[in-house]
Amino acid sequence: MKTHLTTVLLLLTGCLPVAAQQTERAQVEATVLDYLDGGTFGDTTRLIRAFHPSATMKFVDKSTGQFRDVPIADYLNRAKGSAGQRANRTTRILSIDITGTAAQAKLEINAPTHTFIDYFNLLKIDGRWQVVSKIFNRSDKAPLYAPDTISTNDVFGLTIAPGGQTAYFVKSYGGRDTLHLFTTSRQNGHWQKPAKASISGTYKDIDPFFSPDGNLMVFNSTRPKPGRSQPGDFDIWAIRRTNRGWSDPYHLGATVNSDSSDFYASVAANGTLYFSSTRQGGLGKTDIWRSVQRNGVYQKPENLGNTVNTTDYEGNPCIAPDEDFMIYVGRDSQQDYGDGDLVIAFNRNGRWSRPQNLGADVNTADAEFAPTLTDGGKTLLFGRIKRGKPLQENVHIIRQFDRLVERLRSSAQFDS
Question: Is 148 a member of any domain?
Fold first, then answer.
């Protein structure tokens, strides 16, 4: 009997450290959740409770590359400005490690445009776990492209020539009253200071787009059409590479262009032109059309039909060189992030799949537009607008975009 009791006591004693560890973990988790849920739901009481008053927050400022050491009180004071507001984010605890009165926690905060990874050091002080220091890293899902030279809060419509050494884009000056094309070249891996393109400056010029072979660049302009003296709606123009450099801009003609606004043209490898237009005969406010090129001559444009176009707005088509897929501003009936989203449709023998939203890694509550491909289709460049006066718009980048394309291809749906 005595032996049996001794065995039971030993077993119970052995369980105590495990039970204690589980209790400590639950207490650490409670502190961490005060931080996570307090931030998500705008509960500043819980957020403050997670930290020791003397806690610090250390990080590298990505805009300057400088080390920052900030009292947690500064962070909490800023958080009070969002009190009662629910944040659009998801959170999770990745790991917790406890030794005695010290613990570490790794957390993930996933927002529409970025992800934070936080590392916490915690101590058990007067019987309660508190965060005494925080370090973190922020990863933008679609970071600004060339923020030091190109993305200066008033640009969109970046196109990069094959080879990656020349680029054109639109300078908007924070509005739509003045729109010019700018160009830059890459030297030693860095884009140089952009300058206004020689073909631009008098009229509104937008939406440059290189052909896959780099020998043609289409763009849109309000400059007078041939035979007219006054500027008008946007028409599609082009410049062509010659033995003596680039040609003068030339109008693509009345077969392609209409008396309405024709804009954001992209070119397939076979010369077929895809573009946006408000012309009559469409299905909605703005539709996507295409003009096949035969023997160097553009044919009568054809509407892409009601799988791509709706009664609303579809535009800014970026066609793959082989016309295998198209990225554009449109609507996925199953997924909508806000002001304007980028979607993809796949082409199967002339039939287009239903549009699929490119998802939260690309689209936000702001407006995404002006998509272009570079690096052989492995990289997506696109614009994003924050509404206001002035407009704030920049070029963003998604690398390994070809992987996203193949994932979406596997779930493409074609109407019978």
Answer: no
